[in-house]
Design a protein that fits this description.
The complex is a heterodimer of chains A (117) and B (112).
Chain A: E1 4-7, E2 10-13, E3 19-25, E4 32-38, E5 44-51, E6 57-58, E7 67-73, E8 76-81, E9 90-100, E10 103-108, E11 112-116
Parallel strand pairs in A: 2-11
Antiparallel strand pairs in A: 1-3, 3-8, 4-5, 4-9, 5-6, 7-8, 9-10, 9-11
Chain B: E1 3-5, E2 10-14, E3 19-21, E4 24-26, E5 32-38, E6 44-50, E7 56-58, E8 64-68, E9 73-78, E10 87-94, E11 101-102, E12 106-111
Parallel strand pairs in B: 2-12
Antiparallel strand pairs in B: 1-4, 3-9, 5-6, 5-10, 7-8, 8-9, 10-11, 10-12
The chains are: A mainly beta (117), B mainly beta (112).
Chain lengths: 117, 112
């Protein structure tokens, strides 16, 4: 149980285009999902907190108009990178909060690798 | 503010030898602590977590970690490593269900 999927697993796009990444909790409902970015050989940095039915909360330094987050249902959150540029190339990982016993736990998706040419 | 430090960027260990990865944290309240493993190009897999109770936590794949409040540490150990343990390991701190702060990671290389 507690499986999180991401689609696509990798994407290559031209500079200036928009890219949408989906994060789904497959066998549980998640009112909260998180989006992280990981540059090569670096750690994960939280970008934003996505709450179902409300606006996302962005971390300092993350442009909310560039990284659009929509959490339309309890099993789906999307991250849209608008007008992507080469510096947006990164590994994007989502997580969904579910219950492990009585404790809330983050379950991570497999990640989406974005390459902007 | 919460923070996590993993002092070792790389560790090389021989197959069959023991492994210990260090993690120090800073957190204003009782921390929830996690260890994740990431294979190249993959997402994160939870190895173990500490919320409360017994300070020695058992996880998957033969890993364990010990929470030491006095030292603000949560070190990960494995008595005998396998070649498949070569990966990047991340320590993280946060409240359950809330955003996590990750350490910089430790890359483990396993020698035959």
């Amino acid at each position: 149980g507690a499986v999180v999927s991401q689609h696509p697993s990798w994407v290559i796009c031209k500079s200036g285009t928009s890219v949408k990444i989906e994060c789904r909790s497959l066998d549980f409902q998640a009112t909260t999902m998180f989006w992280y970015r990981q540059f090569p050989k670096q750690s994960l940095m939280l970008m934003a907190t996505s709450n179902e039915g409300s606006k996302a909360t962005y971390e300092q330094g993350v442009e909310k108009d560039k990284f659009l987050i929509n959490h339309a249902s309890l099993t789906l959150s999307t991250l849209t990178v608008t007008s992507a540029h080469p510096e947006d190339s990164s590994f994007y990982i989502c997580s969904a909060v579910g219950l492990a016993g009585t404790k809330e736990t983050q379950y991570f998706g497999p990640g989406t690798r974005l390459l902007v040419l | 503010a919460q923070s996590v430090t993993q002092p070792d960027i790389h560790i090389t260990v021989s197959e069959g030898a023991s492994l210990e990865l260090r993690c120090n944290y800073s957190y204003g309240a009782t921390p929830y602590l996690f260890w994740y493993v990431q294979s190249p190009g993959q997402g994160l897999q939870l190895l173990l977590k500490y919320f409360s109770g017994d300070t020695l936590v058992q996880g998957i794949k033969g890993f364990e970690a010990e929470f030491k409040r006095s030292q603000s540490s949560f070190n990960l150990r494995k008595p005998s490593v396998h070649w498949s343990d070569a990966a990047e390991y991340f320590c993280a701190v946060g409240a359950a269900g809330n955003k996590l702060t990750f350490g910089g990671g430790t890359r483990v290389l396993v020698k035959p």
